[in-house]
Write a structure and sequence with these properties.
GO molecular function, one term: lyase activity
CATH superfamily of the largest domain: Fumarase/aspartase (Central domain)
Keywords: Lyase, Purine biosynthesis
Largest sheet: 2 strands, antiparallel
Radius of gyration: 31 Å
Shape: elongated
Order of helices and strands: HHHHHHHEEHEHHEHEHHHEHHHHHH
Protein name: Adenylosuccinate lyase
Helix content: 55-70%
EC number: 4.3.2.2
Number of domains: 3
Pfam family, one: ASL_C
Structural class: mainly alpha
CATH architecture of the largest domain: Up-down Bundle
Strand content: 5-15%
CATH class of the largest domain: Mainly Alpha
Length: 459
């Protein structure tokens, strides 16, 4: 048997690449290296702007040429860095040598020793991860998350008045509308979106143990904490003034916990939609050329939502592990975070794939309102709640002397099928005011939805 040519080990880089590939722009090794180059370049510019050690600010043309190293970073640069790392056996040192080569090519040899000046690898890494994760969240994950919410909200608005039987504990219960039930998920997911959008992306830039020791020895008169703060903030990040060798990763733990929370709400949505499909409430729209079962031609399986469930679980497994692992570092530094953080893209990738499936799935279902109405009409006993509640109000108002209204309705309805005629006869015989009696006689399961449709306006 011949060997296969090199193949992607993860389905995210193989089968599902078209759905998640945009994350690679940020959360791949190449994306990380480009961010590392960006941090090194911006640190060079910041130092020369301050005239460190007799240097002069770079000209506008020199700045543009230096920054183009980042903006034009491509496959040749990826390959060059890989070759350098093969020799250095150190990823950040390879980046330093790469930047030095660029300075030589641009005729900026005079500032070469300012490359990586007073930096530990983690000064570069923590800022690079913050940049790449921030951009991946803002430019890729959040837009897809918002698109899924928008698709769900459109369904909620469309079906705001579609009365349906609720099923608390899986049993017939007080009716609602499909729109209101979907709006609950929209509200939950939107609230989490705001939390994700409010994430602080922290960065440190303070040397080997967070003390600015090398900085002070080299330039004792410089206000290094202020220089550090301004540099970190110039990258669009929030400065962390108190760290060890590493930035403590608490912001990452907070963010990944929020993404996992979103994943779990989405998982709840996927299982509910799957159940509504199983009940027949939603019909799946056949897709041209698609096969539901290899042996049963009639089937349209709810694969979008099943795929989403699996990928949401995988995403949570990775992100939960990262959130738990990254907040611990032995004493001033250990290297467990280095390997762990290389899987950030995996966690986001499975979540993004799930979002893609949910958004597509929501566009491939159609509500069967006639079935919803039939279901309601077969469960008149759910009006027992309304009847006993009205009786209690009538007792308080002095228009009834019925004792224990709940027990009275329990005897009539619990575990039984009660039809419209039986309930009407029961209501006719109640000792309650005429206005209350007429309200109950006019009530049907399809109209017993309270203000469910209006609650959709809360969106």
């Amino acid at each position: 048997m011949t060997s296969l040519p090199p193949q992607p080990l993860s389905p995210l880089d193989g089968r599902y690449r078209s759905a998640v590939g945009t994350l690679g722009e940020h959360l791949s090794e190449a994306g990380l290296n480009r961010a590392r180059v960006q941090v090194e370049v911006e640190w060079l510019i910041a130092q020369t702007d301050r005239g460190f050690f007799g240097t002069s600010p770079l000209s506008p043309d020199q700045r543009a040429q230096l920054r183009s190293v980042v903006t034009e970073f491509g496959q040749a640069d990826i390959d060059e860095l890989a070759a350098l790392e093969a020799t250095t056996r150190h990823d950040v040192k390879a980046v330093e040598y790469y930047v030095r080569r660029r300075l030589e090519l641009l005729g900026l040899d005079a500032i070469a020793e300012l490359t990586h000046f007073a930096c530990t690898s983690e000064d570069i890494n923590n800022l690079s991860y913050a940049i790449t994760v921030r951009d991946a969240v803002r430019e890729v994950w959040l837009p897809k998350y918002r698109a899924a919410i928008d698709a769900l909200e459109a369904l909620a608005v469309e079906h705001r008045d579609a009365a349906m039987l609720s099923r608390t504990h899986g049993q017939p219960a007080t009716p609602s509308t499909m729109g209101k039930e979907l709006a609950v998920f929209v509200h939950r997911l939107t609230r989490i979106a705001k939390q994700v959008e409010a994430t602080e992306y922290l960065g440190k830039f303070s040397g080997a143990t967070g003390t600015f020791s090398a900085h002070v020895v080299a330039a004792p008169d410089v206000a290094w904490p202020e220089v550090s703060r301004q540099f970190v903030e110039s990258l669009g990040l929030t400065w962390n003034p108190l760290t060890t060798q590493i930035e403590s990763h608490d912001w990452q733990a907070e963010l990944y916990a929020r993404i996992s929370h979103a994943n779990r709400v989405l998982h709840n949505l996927a299982t509910d939609i799957w159940t509504y499909i199983s009940l027949g409430y939603f019909r799946q729209i056949p897709q041209a050329g698609a096969t539901g079962s290899s042996t049963m031609p009639h089937k349209i399986n709810p694969i979008r939502f099943e795929n989403a469930e699996a990928n949401l679980e995988l995403s949570c497994a990775v992100l939960d592990s990262l959130a738990a692992t990254l907040v611990t570092s032995r004493l001033q530094r250990d290297l467990t975070d280095s390997s762990a953080q290389r899987n950030i893209g995996v966690g986001f990738g499975h979540s993004l794939l799930a979002l893609d499936n949910i958004q597509r799935g929501l566009g491939e279902v159609d509500l069967d309102e006639s079935l919803l109405l039939d279901d309601l009409d077969g469960n008149w006993e759910v009006l027992g709640e309304a009847i006993q509640t009205v009786i209690r109000a009538e007792v308080v108002a002095g228009r009834s002397t019925i004792s224990d209204p709940y027990a009275l309705l329990k005897e009539l309805t619990r575990g039984k099928r009660v039809g419209a005629a039986e309930l009407a006869a029961f209501v006719e015989g109640l000792e309650i005011g005429d206005a209350a009696k007429q309200r109950l006689l006019a009530l049907t399961p399809a109209t017993y939805t309270g203000i469910a449709s209006k609650l959709v306006d809360e969106l």
